[in-house]
């Protein structure tokens, strides 16, 4: 019997490995159930807030206020908030048009501002450069790659452009109402809102795969959980997309509370929502159940 023991042990080991692999595969394929619970909300002191950006390095929030409550140019501004909603500086960067999408690279904050790009020195709290975008119609969201390339959408001109080394170039020259962007290294998520699609685009080839349909996305954030992204629709709806599923997490459309371009604290799993015409920023804790 002794000479058969090693064979039996090997067979048991192989069977257990196969069982574990099958179980792991099943676990990975099963969707996670997500939820949002409100943590705090500012008073209605914002002025048409279109986007929120979490700055992990400095532990603050930036809020782009388009300020459609006041007539004329140069009334838009960017506010700086603490992560508990306390206002640090309401008019941190002012004299803007209609700031929307924002992104950070190093100590620079980039933002779209109607028909131009803003380059802001974060430490100094001042605009370093205003870059006019020739032929622009409605500059919208923005995302920055690891190499410092700025990708930004023009929803009404129907294209995605880049800014690098002082030069602006067309990257995706034709796309139906692009909006939300999220850089993924060698790829980038692009919301083709006119087609109600979220596309994962290969930066080198321009080829893409559709990862979600039926959603008109404003903001996109990676959750930190493989394959799962939280997306907002301006009308007041937030979804989780991933693992071939779409889960609705929030619907405030009936209350006329918009959910524009969201921000996200990946470490603490907190979503920051600018409510646009409702003039607030609301923070939600992302919950999950496997």
How would you classify the helix and strand content by structural class? mainly beta
H/E element string?
Answer: HEEEEEEEEEEEEEEEEEEEEEEEE
The CATH class label is Mainly Beta
Known CATH architecture: 6 Propeller
Which residue ranges are poorly predicted, with pLDDT under 50 across at least 5 consecutive positions?
A: 1-27
Using the alpha-carbon principal axes, give the shape. Answer: globular
**Overall structural domain count:** 1
Question: In the CATH hierarchy, what is the superfamily?
Answer: TolB, C-terminal domain
The fraction of residues assigned to DSSP E strands is: over 45%
Q: What kind of sheet is the major sheet?
A: 4 strands, antiparallel
The rounded Rg comes to 22 Å
Major β-sheet strand ordering: 1-24-23-22
The total count of strands amounts to 24
Distance between the termini: 45 Å
Helicity level, as a percent range?
A: under 10%
Summed over residues and divided by their number, the pLDDT gives a mean of 91
- SS element count, helices: 1
- Report the CATH topology name: Neuraminidase
């Amino acid at each position: 019997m002794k000479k058969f023991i090693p064979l039996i042990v090997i067979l048991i080991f192989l069977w257990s490995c196969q069982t574990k692999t099958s179980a792991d595969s099943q676990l990975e394929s099963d969707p996670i159930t997500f939820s949002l619970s409100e943590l705090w909300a500012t008073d209605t002191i914002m002025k048409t807030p279109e986007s929120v950006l979490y700055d992990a390095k400095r532990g603050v929030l930036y809020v782009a206020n388009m300020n459609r409550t006041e007539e004329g140019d140069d009334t838009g501004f960017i506010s700086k908030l603490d992560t508990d909603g306390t206002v640090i500086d309401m008019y941190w960067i002012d004299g803007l048009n209609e700031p929307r999408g924002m992104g950070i690279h190093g100590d620079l904050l980039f933002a779209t501002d109607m028909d131009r790009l803003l380059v802001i020195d974060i430490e100094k709290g001042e605009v370093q450069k205003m870059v006019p975008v020739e032929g622009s119609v409605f500059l919208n969201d923005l995302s920055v790659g690891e190499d410092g390339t700025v990708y930004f959408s023009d929803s009404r001109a129907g294209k995605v452009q880049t800014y690098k080394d002082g030069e602006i170039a067309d990257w995706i020259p034709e796309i139906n109402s692009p909006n939300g962007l999220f850089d993924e290294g060698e790829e980038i998520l692009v919301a083709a809102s006119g087609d109600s699609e979220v596309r994962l685009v290969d930066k080198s080839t321009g080829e893409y795969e559709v990862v979600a349909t039926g959603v008109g996305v404003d903001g996109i954030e990676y959750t930190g959980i493989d394959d799962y992204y939280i997306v907002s629709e301006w009308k007041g709806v937030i979804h989780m997309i991933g693992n071939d599923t779409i889960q609705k997490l929030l619907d405030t459309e009936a209350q006329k509370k918009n959910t524009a371009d969201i921000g996200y604290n990946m470490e603490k799993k907190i979503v920051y929502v600018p409510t646009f015409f409702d003039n607030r920023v609301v923070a939600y804790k992302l919950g999950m159940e496997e």
